[in-house]
């Protein structure tokens, strides 16, 4: 599969497919951090050692692929243009750290883009699995399958008492980061989110924006993940997160029902005003686009808007990011040029659906 396939298909299969509770949970992700025993960690190793790590994992990839995952394609960061790397970040296939700071960084991607193995990121290996809806257990099963395949040929840095050793102490132990991406517009509109986030943090979980640490919750999309990796099993970490997510799903649905009862016409008006902005704007910034897309998706979920697929909104959330806009333009764009092109792209996509 060529790089063009990865960057031209705006929405990966894990984001376009329906999954359990996908009206609220956009995706589930499992990430496993691993390091090779015989090499220094990425925070300390030399350029030569980074290259040796990459070659070792390349050799592993040449021996086949894990079970049902299918063929994995290797993409080396130093062979990609900055814009191409940005597109991969916007599709959640690689991390911003791998795109910007890695030394001999690379990733191996499965054909359906559900599996991404990042090489020489903050750790030597980061195995990532993405599934639509609330499917943390299913993503964990695939991640473990890839992990077992990798461990057949490489020797991990592992301590009998501490578990898997990682560059960041917060990942030591299981090395697992389980997360879900959730659309919570009703909790935001009712301002309940302001008391919920601190409560979630007290449970050993963290709430971040759409692109993880340091990012904003654009379009009322939040990423909830575990902070504790030591002293609990992978299964327990996933089950604890699922329990909190189920409570958030229930609270979001209750908030939507309350809005429909107390502010139905105001909410319907908000939804259609946002749709009007998307369908008619000639200039639109990314934050406004994200807000309007969130409103329209809520309108679809609540039955205000008919005959418009949620998949289109998932697609537009990716297509309207700066990297994709510039990729489609064939080169760099100034911020004002991106705002014009973003508005045109949204109008064209909505017209195609109609």
Give structural notes.
This protein is α+β, with helices and mostly antiparallel strands. It has two domains: 1-173, Glutamine synthetase/guanido kinase, catalytic domain (Creatine Kinase, Chain A, domain 2); 262-352, no CATH class. It has 14 helices and ten strands. It has an eight-stranded antiparallel sheet. A two-stranded antiparallel ribbon has the order 6-7. The radius of gyration is 21 Å and the shape is globular.
CATH-derived architecture of the largest domain: 2-Layer Sandwich
| Low-pLDDT runs | none
What is Rg? 21 Å
Question: Gap between N and C termini, in Å?
Answer: 32 Å
Provide the residue-averaged pLDDT: 88
CATH superfamily of the largest domain, please? Glutamine synthetase/guanido kinase, catalytic domain
Main beta-sheet strand count, sense and barrel state? 8 strands, antiparallel
Per the CATH scheme, the topology name of the largest domain is: Creatine Kinase, Chain A, domain 2
- Alpha-beta classification: alpha+beta
Please count the beta strands (DSSP E, at least 2 residues each): 10
| SSE ordering | HHEHEHHEEEHEEEHHEEHHHHHH
Count helical runs. Answer: 14
Could you tell me the strand content as a percent range?
Answer: 15-25%
Q: What's a concise summary of this model?
A:
With 354 residues, this protein is α+β, with helices and mostly antiparallel strands.
Task: Furnish the topology, listing elements before pairings.
Blueprint (H helix, E strand, L loop, with lengths): L2 H6 L4 H4 L8 E10 L12 H15 L10 E5 L5 H9 L5 H6 L4 E5 L4 E5 L5 E8 L3 H16 L6 E2 L3 E2 L11 E8 L1 H5 L3 H10 L2 E4 L12 E6 L7 H29 L1 H17 L5 H16 L8 H10 L2 H8 L5 H19 L1
Helix pairs in contact: 4-13, 10-11, 11-12
Organism: Bacillus methanolicus (strain MGA3 / ATCC 53907)
InterPro entries: Arg_Kinase, ATP-guanido_PTrfase, ATP-guanido_PTrfase_AS, ATP-guanido_PTrfase_cat, Gln_synth/guanido_kin_cat_dom
Protein name: Protein-arginine kinase
């Amino acid at each position: 599969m060529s790089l063009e396939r990865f960057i031209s298909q705006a929405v990966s299969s894990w984001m376009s497919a329906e999954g359990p509770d996908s009206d609220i949970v956009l995706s589930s992700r499992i990430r496993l951090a691993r390091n090779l025993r015989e090499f220094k960690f990425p925070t300390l190793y030399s350029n030569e050692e980074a290259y040796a790590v990459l070659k070792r994992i390349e050799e592993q990839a040449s021996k086949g692929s894990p079970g049902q995952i299918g063929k994995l394609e290797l993409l080396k960061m130093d062979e990609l243009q900055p814009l191409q790397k940005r597109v991969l970040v916007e599709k959640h296939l690689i991390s911003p750290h791998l795109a910007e700071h890695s030394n001999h960084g690379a990733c191996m991607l499965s054909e359906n883009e559900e599996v991404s193995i990042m090489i020489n990121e903050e750790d030597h290996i980061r195995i990532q699995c993405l599934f639509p809806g609330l499917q943390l257990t299913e993503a964990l099963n695939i991640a473990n399958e890839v992990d077992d395949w990798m461990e057949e040929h490489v020797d991990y840095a592992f301590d009998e008492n501490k578990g898997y050793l990682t560059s960041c102490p917060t990942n030591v132990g299981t090395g697992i980061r389980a997360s879900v991406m959730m659309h919570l517009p009703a909790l935001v509109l009712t301002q309940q989110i302001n008391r919920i986030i601190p409560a979630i943090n007290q449970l050993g979980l963290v709430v971040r924006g759409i692109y993880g640490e340091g990012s904003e919750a654009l379009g009322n999309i939040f990423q909830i993940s575990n902070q504790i990796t030591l002293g609990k099993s992978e299964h327990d970490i996933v089950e604890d997160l699922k329990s909190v997510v189920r409570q958030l799903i229930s609270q979001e649905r209750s908030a939507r029902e309350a809005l429909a009862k107390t502010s139905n016409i105001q909410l319907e008006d908000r939804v259609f005003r946002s749709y009007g902005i998307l369908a008619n704007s000639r200039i639109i910034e990314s934050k406004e686009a994200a807000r309007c897309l969130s409103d329209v998706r809520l309108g679809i979920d609540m039955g205000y808007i008919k005959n418009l697929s949620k998949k289109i909104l998932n697609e537009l959330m990716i297509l309207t990011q700066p990297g994709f806009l510039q990729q489609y333009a064939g080169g760099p764009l100034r911020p004002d040029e991106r705002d014009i092109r973003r508005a045109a792209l949204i109008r064209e996509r909505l017209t195609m659906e109609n």
